[in-house]
Write a structure and sequence with these properties.
This protein is an alpha/beta fold and about 450 residues long. Helices cover about 50% and strands about 10% of the residues. The protein is globular.
Amino acid sequence: MAMATSGVALGTTSALVDHLPPCSASSSAFACGLGRSAVPTSLQRPAGLLLASSADDAASLSPSGGLCKVSAALCLGVTAFSAASRRARRRGDGGHVKRRVLQPFVIEPINTFMTDMKEMAKRLATPGRVVLDASEGPKELQQRLKLAGASGGGAAEDRAEWRRLLASGALRDLCSGVVLDEEGLAQEGVVKALQEQGVAVGVRVDEGFFPMNGYGEIGTEGLVDLERRVQGCYQKGARFAKWRTRLKLNMELPTDIVVWENTFRLAECARHCQMNGLVTLIEIELESGNQDKHSLDRASYVLEKVMSQAIRQLNEKDVAVEAIVLVPPTLSAGIGAPPASTESNVRATLRTLLRTAPPAVGGILALPGDRGSLKESARILRELQESNTGPWPIVPIYGPLLLGPILETWIASGTDAAHQLLARLLGASVATQVVAQE
């Protein structure tokens, strides 16, 4: 390419020479850059200026009013040859230009689980269904069974029988998912019984809480060997995981460092879960004491702060929010403060969700808490669904508030009575929901 270009330039020069009159040797030598010694002093001019000039400028330097046109043509030919040489030096083998492509970001590998996780997130948040949270650990469940009067005192056999009772209930078309603890996930027959009814199986992957400071604030444990445990949970049949974040709420708490630490931990959990095929249920609890007098605005401010930081941490760790299901609390004022109406609580909760929850989130599970009654929780849920203007559906997740009466009935009246009560309570919850949500 370089030789062809220079050949064209020199060929053009030769053609000009054939049609132009002869000129002095000194002028030609100067035009071609052969040196200043062969050119009269009166005609000397910096070579760089000559090479950058046009043919007319060069001709103006001839002894009779400028250099001859042959000198100008030769000068332009040398310029073209030099430019072609420079272009040739920039080229690599085969006449192609070598370019260095800078890649500032590492390309993330394709997650082969992503399609299934997105479908699972939407499935869990199906309007007209309920998610059951039976993820109490062995110690908590043993204590609950013991208080209810279990014959074995809440030992391992009592816990296994309780899980078999839940898995064998009429959950089809009423329940979208059941959250177990790791002991329940490993129990033989439970996962298979749930899957046969079309119920998704989940597992709680956090390992409780640890104290963080002298103010009574706590952090969530479970990150040390989380990846190994998550891989084992997927192999046992789990398709979603639950991670709890529990914060104290009053006029001074939570502190910024505790908010940052807990949101960092939940984002790490979500990252490990998505890498191994599990949808993540991010549960945020705001605990207040009996004497706390914080207002509804204060509760709304704290939840907005926590959720904003959580979403920021999820984005920094490249977590796909489409495979995330949020489990926020329903806001309310402190027990010692003047109570707010249910409509105000619902309005504040939805406002916070609209400000913080991305539209791509798989769904919202409303957390009624352990206080109050099932009837009150159902009314709050219906108002949340009716007033919801967000792009995500809102469905309930029930734990001890719904499962507590069933456990007591099982201890007192047997399996059949417990199954009937479970079907009745789930049916009542489904009947009070607003199924048609945009």
